[in-house]
Design brief:
single chain, 181 residues, mainly beta, OB fold (Dihydrolipoamide Acetyltransferase, E2P), 42% strand
């Protein structure tokens, strides 16, 4: 199961991270340990059925390994562990969401796989539905959160991918990909 998503051309700029209040747009929603999160759809490249990544020694615990994606080495992050939680339990709907983040220096965009329990849907969100990140009580570092989207079913935590996968982390991931290649 591979789901490719329509996305802007490779030359299009990625939306900046750290935006105070996310604008209207589409967000890919997914479940992670019974909580619903969202990612800006412009960052998402595709959704893959879970396949066991190749383990890379001496990596942080949240680096699940690397996969071969059409000849490219792509690191896979266990998002639950990145958030300081227990490792993701592998289930039938567990999948890897391939996202694109800005690389360090002139390296350009970098693809990273994010391990999630299940992908839910792509939702259209209006700016009025999105509240600023709360200052407490979510169980995540505040800088990881772009906003909280109000829906009929409750809140969706909108992640700031650029902060969840910081420059330091990306440098380590690039090194891991180079070692595995």
């Amino acid at each position: 199961m591979t789901t490719a998503l329509a996305h802007p051309s490779a030359t299009a700029a990625l939306p900046p991270s750290g935006v105070a209040r996310p604008a209207s747009g589409q967000y890919l929603t997914f479940t992670l340990q019974n909580e619903v999160y969202g990612l800006d759809i412009l960052r998402v490249r595709e959704i893959l059925e879970y396949t066991r990544p190749t383990t890379v020694p001496m990596m942080p615990a949240f680096v699940h390994g690397v996969i071969n994606l059409r000849g490219n080495v792509v690191p896979v992050i266990d998002l639950a562990q990145r958030f300081g939680r227990a490792p993701t339990e592998l289930k039938p709907r567990t999948c890897i969401v391939i996202i694109e983040v800005e690389g360090e220096g002139d390296g350009g965009p970098m693809s990273i796989g994010v391990l999630v329990d299940a992908v839910n849907a792509v939702l259209d969100m209006e700016a009025e539905q999105i509240e600023p990140p709360p200052s407490f009580g979510v169980g995540l570092r505040q800088e990881f959160i772009r906003g909280m989207a109000r829906t009929e079913a409750g809140f969706i935590i909108l992640l700031d991918v650029g902060r969840v996968l910081s420059v330091e982390d990306m440098a380590g991931l690039a090194q891991a990909a180079a070692i595995a290649a």
